[in-house]
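User: I'm writing a short methods note and want a consistent example. For Acyl-CoA synthetase, I'll paste the sequence; you return only the structure tokens, no commentary, since I'll be parsing the reply automatically.
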Amino acid sequence: MGRYDFTLYDLIKRNAVCHAGKPAWFEAETGTTVNFGQFRQQVDRLAAGLQRAGVRAGDRVGVVGKNSLAFFQLIGATAALGAIVLPVNWRLSAGEVAFNLNDGTPVMVFADEEFAPVVTSVRDQLPSVRHFVNLAGSGPLDPFDGLIGDDLFSGAPVDADAGLVIIHTAAVAGRPRGALLSHVNLLCASLHFNTCFGLTPGDVHLNLLPLFHVAGFFMAVAAFHAGALNVNMNRFNAAEAVQLIQSHHASVFFDFSPILGAILDEQANTGADISSLRAVMGLDAADTIERYQQVTGGTFYSMYGQTETSCLATLGRYDDRPGAAGRPILMGMVELVDDADQPVAVGQVGEITLTGPMVFKGYWNLDDDNAQTFRNGRHHTGDLGRFDEDGFLWYSGRKPEKELIKPGGENVYPAEVEAVILAHPAVKQTVVIGVPDPKWKEGIKAVCVLELGQTLTAEALIEFVGQRIARYKKPQVVEFVASLPEKDGSIDREAVKSQYGG
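Assistant:
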């Protein structure tokens, strides 16, 4: 650490001075409120406990849990040590949880009482883990409070460019990839959020996205950075969200469809006052965005980004160019390039690339993938877009080799789902595609050819998939066909989309 370094733990210390007695976190589930000064003390005591347990700079600490004060404290304590937090999507299957944890080789794993059985079931598959600890509630793991004592935390200097968090992206080519993000990535993203929203200590962030998601993690820190209050939900529920908006005058949150629509429906049914919502950012349908603005008078901010770009690459007010994803962020150079990595003209579609301090450090232990994504000095997103004459980005889908389906903000790669479907003995061929969905914006459809003489129902195949990978990845629709269109001896995916993607 040098004179120019500033880390997440430095931010925690800074806010304990600037906002010591001001509420930092409200836990909706328990009614607990913690101020910024108390939060720093709790982080220090937990960091000292992690030190006693043998956690050192660069070690990974796995977490399988819903949003909670303990989870947020653990993020801060891990950062204080220069270790790396490894949050795992709790919607994954036990096998997927084991894969993501093993990929990061953590020395400790924390789990909610709800997910302790999952972690326990794969315990023998996690040879790097020395301690298994309850995150929230009781359970079969070591007690969380056992780590917290009266020791004084004495941290070693931490480089601002050191790794802070590994967030696994969707399973391109059949396996998830751990995106490593640094303190600089996080705090740069935080400043972008704060600048866009104009966040102040008077704001209240409704923390409803999971902390294993880059938007949930980084938005919670952005609110903390501004001295605003995080009102935490351990899991989204529209009725509870509306009640919390009204009672705590929540002013901002990050949205993925169908969250905002569900909140507006609940408000319409109850007549609750949600006029405090002045700013919402994310991805949603035009009619939902316009309805929100009419009901609250607030502003919706459109954006484009990935985990690999610290959540953001472009952003802007929805009303400035409805349908666009905003303009490039203040500290990011977004360029659109062709297959030869040459810039494309205004109005032409090209691959979205990014340079700047928002670009992640790389995929964990995947040198070949890093060489590919960082070729010619840019991060290549695999997404396509075009710029209009005023510099607004219009998203144009994924490159064919990185086809992606996004139901409700989650990333699902067809290749992963297809591999599971093809493990069913009755299925000969399949293509998984994205289709329009009124609730999730995009749904998952499997088009399948059965083996000769085999029979199978759509319901049985959907359940087969849901038992093997996260249930949000299973198809909502299955269509059985006699054959799939081919081109040059291979399945023609574009023709499948054209024929069956309505």
